[in-house]
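Quick question about two entries, pasted in order.
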Amino acid sequence: MGSAAMTGRRPCRRALRSTSCRRSRAADGLPAARSRVRAAGGPFLDALPPPPAVNRPRLPRAFPPRFAGTDVASCYRSRAASAHLPAALSGVRAARGPILDGSPPQSVVKRPRSPRVVGVSLRCCAGRRVLSYPWGSMCGGTDGEAGMRVDVASRRRKPESVRAAFPGATVIDVTSRGPEPWVRLSPFYPHGGIPIPLTSGAVGASVEGIWQALKVFESADVDPGRLAVTSMTKIKRTVRRYGPVRGHRAGLTGQELLDYPTARKQIYLPAYRWVLEHRVPDLVDRLRGLAAGGIVLLDYTTNGDPADTSSPLSHAALLARYLTGRWPGPEPA
């Protein structure tokens, strides 16, 4: 036992305040009386090793705590961290100087943000076709009329937004809800007498009616009744009623089922092009005249690629490609 226990004297307060006494109370959770006895003379406390010292590098005062453990260069590339760095550190980063851990600075790659696709423009400027997007242009072929510009935008956008995006252009709604005479460019319009692709001698009232009639579902085959619908309503056949779509029949009496991209190229594109060339050539000529000052065709979708099945095919985009000589399918014989 210690000297205090042998002489019968109480341990001094200095001994009770010692580091070992505080460590004993925190580690063992003993009452204060037992802690005093153990601190006075027991060898228990002497056997405890001191806690290891951990030297952590101190960061600048302005350095945000949530970025501890990262290098300054990576923090400088972060908007949140660069706002907290002092001007001196920012100057070092701009000069590509060494960072805190001594590793070489990484190259900063600026990636432009991808804007929301709001439409596609097809321009023919001085004989060079240009596929124009809201954020840039992609060059196409070499034919086309000089000065023609045809844009496609979503009908769901506000009119003021469309006018701001395409200043000076004539906006034309070519959907089934559009005004006369442009509603006749809709695939729902019942022109009548439209030849059904892959079916000899059969005709339909509208392009959409032909497309829906040849659709095959899990619980339903072709529906010739859709070919005679002239009301522009109740034409579509939905998966909610008939189940998943298996494909499109290659003709009313065909045995082959076509997948979506193939059905678009062999059914939808030939039927809609026939309408443009035999039912509305006067409207096509009017659009070409208006395109000299720029026109915007409104549709519910803007997808003009038959191979892209992520969204419905846009007849307005097909019309724009037809006006500018970029029809996606083969030329009719």
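Here is the second entry:
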Amino acid sequence: MSKHAIETAVDIDAPVEHVWRMLTDFAGYQQWGDYMPNDVEPSRRAEELAAAFLSRVWNGTSNDLSAIDQLMAEDYQIHSAMKTVSGRDAFRQWVSDFQNVLTNARNDILEVFANAAGDRVVARWICSGLNNGMFGLPADGRPVRFSGIAIWRVENERLAECWIERAGLEAYRDLTSTR
């Protein structure tokens, strides 16, 4: 059985030390490698925006619904459970309604990351609270905990649109199981 190999060689007309210095100058890559992002600020700002939303609006006992006006676009949309809620006022009511059936609702952030342009940001989180009638079930104060993921579109340094998925079936099964 014969082995086949493909070999490629590149001759660089420069001293080895100069080539090595260029290859290990990571900070200088943006000067000659246009595939390297040179501005991480947009993605960092998007990550901070998502983290601020999760920590201020979903922080347990003192949820700050006024943060919605500061962090969301006026025509904000959220797509959840095959429904769309449009506008900040409607979204604020949606959050309030959810927090009424899940008291002390808080989201613990597991991870937040954004694309280089900063116009998309993703967060993975764990939501927890106390059952106060979730899924139309009796309000029994049982602890509720489920995971979720949110993908936001960012526009003009505000959250403009969100697609959210939650482990609702698992939460429902936990609440309807016998102890």
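Reply: The chain has one domain: 41-176. Residues 3 and 177 are 60 Å apart (CA to CA). Hope that helps.
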